[in-house]
Fold this sequence. Notes:
41% helix; Rossmann fold; 18% strand; single chain; 7 strands
Amino acid sequence: MRKTGHMSVGQGVLMLLFPPKCVGCGELMPLKDGMTHVFCPFCRTKWEASRLDPQERILSWDDSVCGLVSVVGYTSGKAEGIPERLIYHLKHKDESRVFKYAAREMWPLLCDILQTRDASQENILITYPPRRRSALVKEGFDQARRLAEALSKLSGWPVETLLERTLSGRRAQKKLNAEARAENAVKAYRISRDVVELSNTTVILVDDLYTTGATLRTCADLLIETGAARVILATLGRTKHHSG
């Protein structure tokens, strides 16, 4: 695993010009806390309380898709919740310290599932479902890619763009019901033309949020059809009324 470095001079200057704020309540945070924490002590307590129960953080799947790991429960439409605010931040604000924090939260669960499935010594790649082009243009970044890159820096596992959007994948998943999400996801993704070989590889498929699972299931199936030995689904949040 790669070690995280100290704050660079450039990062220090940016922190002085733009002091870090708590993602939960918006209050200014001390500079010494800003690089390692994204919450003030009060909001951090709420974040800890939002963690899924230990037995729910890793859900079993099947032989090829060997599990889903998630850190916290998420409630759709709950704008004031701490997990909901953090995931909103990931989607709309390209702030590296927040992606690093999310990656650190997900990392222990990934280590646990790899050890449990005897996959820790296999070839491991990280990938992600690409964002819609219209959302990418609007926001200027892909939150799933940023999260995958943060996990890559933390773990040392390479991140590869193994999936791509099709021209059919223009509808936003959040506006669809479960059945329509599944249908839309099948049309929306394909394996990247540059991908040739995935045999003997465990692929960690990363996204910020698991809602119905339509996107991740579709992408996992594509990876397995292309030869991946197994796929692990990894998200920061999981919508509470869906368990797998």
